[in-house]
Write a structure and sequence with these properties.
Layout: E1 4-7, H1 13-27, E2 46-50, E3 54-58, E4 61-65, H2 80-89, E5 97-103, E6 109-112, E7 124-130, E8 133-138, E9 146-150, E10 155-158, E11 166-172, E12 185-191
Antiparallel strand pairs: 1-10, 2-5, 3-4, 5-12, 6-11, 7-10, 7-12, 8-9, 8-11
This protein binds N-(carboxycarbonyl)-S-(naphthalen-2-ylmethyl)-L-cysteine and fe (iii) ion.
Length: 198
């Protein structure tokens, strides 16, 4: 798929452990929660956000907002190591949103497109930590999809033609990693959600 770039093992074991500890420390101020779909059902994935803007879903729809829906507080800052990874890979305007997804207890994410961002030409960068995921991706227009495994420490970027690809997480291979306290998989996605400067 053009525009899809994967860096397997971009983070070594120590970098993964450090980032995981940093993420859980920041989540103290912005607890993981289960967003409601616009249809009124809770997502199976637990979420939070870092940065000026966070992705939320509720019966009013999907959007980015500056405030945690349950605490009413602003989101914690994006860890510097993630901003460095962005600069070293996709570059361009600095990300203003980092969605934190925790997959545990059979959580999955159905096929979807990411189109809630102001500039749909801005790239997305994803970091996987913990249990291995079976990731599915296919063309924006629909048609055949392919699956690949995203393992702990893998980095992937979605740019250009891949930016509007349909994608999802079919399943997570429970117990494939011991990185995450309590088990499961963490995915961190960096995005430019608001209007880019310049
Ligand atoms: C392909 N997250 O948060 S990350 C999401 O593993 C999301 O939690 C998945 O899809 C996860 O929206 C997949 C890899 C990813 C992220 C964004 C994309 C793939 C993408 C945007 C466009 C195309
Ligand atoms: Fe997505």
């Amino acid at each position: 798929m053009p525009g899809f770039r994967l860096w397997p093992g971009a983070l070594d074991a120590q970098a993964q452990a450090q980032l995981t500890a940093d993420v859980f420390a920041r989540l103290e101020a912005a607890p993981l929660y289960r967003p409601m779909t616009p249809g009124g059902r809770p997502l199976s994935v637990r979420m939070s956000n870092f940065g000026p803007l966070g992705w939320v879903s509720d019966p009013r729809g999907y959007r980015y907002q500056a405030i945690h829906p349950e605490t009413g507080q602003g989101w914690p800052d994006i860890p510097a190591v993630l901003l460095d990874l962005w600069a070293a890979t996709v570059g361009g305007p600095t990300p203003d949103a980092c969605l934190v997804n925790l997959y545990r207890d059979g959580a999955r994410m159905g096929l979807h497109q990411d189109r809630d961002e102001a500039d749909l030409s801005a790239p997305v960068l994803s970091v996987s930590l913990g249990d291995t995921a079976v990731f599915r991706i296919g063309p924006a227009e629909g048609g055949p999809t392919t699956t690949l495994r995203l393992e702990s420490g893998d980095l992937c970027a979605l740019t250009g033609p891949a930016r509007l690809a349909r994608h999802g997480i079919d399943r997570v291979l429970e117990g494939s990693s011991r990185l995450i306290p309590g088990g499961g998989r963490l995915n961190l996605t960096l995005r430019r959600a608001g209007v880019s400067p310049d």
